[in-house]
Amino acid sequence: MKIGFSFLSLKTLSVKRAISITKKLGGNTLELFGDLVLFYRGKFCEKPESIKEFAVKNDIFLTMHLPYIDINLASFNDEIWEKSIESILKAIEYGEKAGIKRAVLHPGGVPLSHLVLIFLAQRRLRKALEFILEKAEKYDVEVCIENPYFEENDIFSNVDQFHKFIKGFGGKLKVCFDFGHAHISKKGIDYSLNLLKPFITHVHIHDNHGEKDEHLSLGKGSIDFKKYLDFLRNFDGTIILEINSLKDKREDLKRSVEIIKGEV
Fold it and tell me: In DSSP terms, which residues pair with 142 in a beta bridge?
């Protein structure tokens, strides 16, 4: 089982330290924070080659959450759209040097929920993904798109629309299934998981109370994870605990791993 943590969950600015913490907490996978590649022109970044070497030495599998802060791959503003693509490609290039094999991105948003705007935004996203998938394929990096909440400013109105969009890529585009997001969405986890399952190669897992994205440790919200343990324990992809609540401690992170592994 490839299971571990989001870089942000471990509350450190050092990737090597995050790798060490991941091992101590019972994980074997770490998801890098792609925005760090862009902050102050990468000022906080460690050399990707040294990250790769340290990860291999510690037997840690690396994935990356591609940039999402101020990024919109569906933007109608050409300059923002182009810079968003450029930012994603820069992060993929860095990630490939660091040894990542899988990367996650967000779909983007619209200023108003209107059928015409949603249609046009999806076209912009499709075009952006064509550039991104072409680059990722050269680097042997798999790209997964994350299911949103399907709220007012999302470019997909529901999970069925999201599913139809993904099918249009003929298997080249995979899905990062976010349990917390699905729990908030109107159709819920069961329907969303069953619909998207053929495309899911990556999972983000965290808890909430069904109203907002709280990123809590497992068991601290209202998701009944017992229903999904068989799926998770037999899953061939990567599982990332995206527990970013400031209230959760490392003991909570460790227990979340143990719950999924069946150790508690």
Answer: 102
Neighbour-count burial of 170, counting CB atoms closer than 10 A to its CB (0-12 exposed, 13-18 middle, 19+ buried): exposed
Half-sphere exposure of 63 (CA within 13 A, CB side): 28
pTM as predicted:
0.96
For residue range 197-255, what is the model confidence (pLDDT) as tens digits?
A: 999 999 999 999 999 999 999 999 999 999 999 999 999 999 999 999 888 889 999 99
How far lies 108's CA from each of 114, 125, 150, 195, 240, in Å? Answer: 15, 8, 11, 21, 21
Q: Tell me whether residue 127 is exposed, middle or buried, using C-beta atoms within 10 angstroms of its C-beta: 0 to 12, 13 to 18, 19 or more.
A: middle
CA 155, CA 115: separation in Å to the nearest integer?
A: 10
Is-contact 27 4, C-beta < 8 A? yes
